[in-house]
Amino acid sequence: MDILKNLELKIAEAIKHFKEQLAGIRGGRPSSKLVEDVPVEYFGQKLTIKQLGSISIISPREIQISVWDRNAASAVLKAIESSGLNISANPEGNLIRINLPSLSGERRQELIKVAKKEAEEARIKIRGIRDEINKEINRQFSACARGASASAGKGGSASAGEEKKISEDDKFKFKEKVQESVDKTNEEIEKILENKIKEIEE
Fold this sequence. Notes:
The chain is of the alpha+beta class. It has 2 domains: 2-22 and 104-201, Topoisomerase I, Chain A, domain 4, CATH 1.10.132; 29-99, Gyrase A, domain 2 (2-Layer Sandwich), CATH 3.30.1360. The chain has 5 helices and 6 strands. The chain has helices at 2-23, 49-52, 73-81, 105-154, 168-201; strands at 39-42, 45-48, 53-58, 62-67, 89-92, 95-99. The strands form 2 sheets. Strands 3-4-6-5 form a 4-stranded antiparallel beta sheet. Strands 1-2 form a two-stranded antiparallel ribbon. Helix 1 (2-23) packs antiparallel against helix 4 (105-154). InterPro entries: Ribosome_recyc_fac, Ribosome_recyc_fac_dom, RRF_sf. GO terms for molecular function: ribosomal large subunit binding. Keywords: Coiled coil, Protein biosynthesis.
């Protein structure tokens, strides 16, 4: 049914956004995900760092960006410094080096709080999607009830081509499936959060 497909699409979009938000939170180890999607203003275009160069990790705590066009180096550097990631970058020709100092215990706790906040916002988003889909289910059921009543009054069946409608049995089945998807998604959010916390604590 279109209702459940719509639910899946909205949930997938919400999870993608959640993962992107967590990717911007620094972990205990350097990761290309920290900078790869940072937007860069380059010759009037909005591009990401991963579109402008290759990103590699130099152990133990360095991220190295090699831009393909040397002229892009200053734009990438500016984007990193204004990204809100609170990291410093050093340019060397077409290379940009980012050295990540070890996280203090206090800073780790701050980042964990941010990750948990993102997880809670993701759960709120999922609840909103659930409520929106359930309203659509109720709307289609109400349309079905009205159609049945009108049909009975006229002594005939509703004409083909009318808006999609669902029965009472379908209404409960759809709502059960919606809740199952929501529960499964909340479990996924929790696992993603747990992995992020482990990453921060490393």
